[in-house]
Amino acid sequence: MNTTPLADRLRPRTLDDVAGQQHLLRPGSVFRSAIDSGRVPNMIFYGPSGVGKTTVARIIAENSQMRLHKLNGTSASTADIKNVISETGTLMGQGGILLYLDEIQYLNKKQQQSLLECIEDGSVTLIASTTENPYFYVYSALLSRCTVFEFKPLTSADAQKALLRAARLTAQLDDCQVQFGEGALELLASACGGDMRKALNSLELCCIAAPVENGVRCITRQMADQVVQRASMNYDRDGDNHYDTISALQKSIRGSDPDAAVHYLARLLVTGDLLVACRRLLVIASEDVGLAYPQAIPIVKACVDSALQLGLPEARLPLADAAILLATAPKSNSGHNAINAAMADVEKGRLGPIPRQLQNKHYDGADVEVKGQNYLYPHNFPNHWVKQQYLPDALVGTVYYEYGQNKTEQAAKAYWEKIKGQK
Question: What pTM, to 2 d.p., does this model score?
Answer without folding.
Answer: 0.56
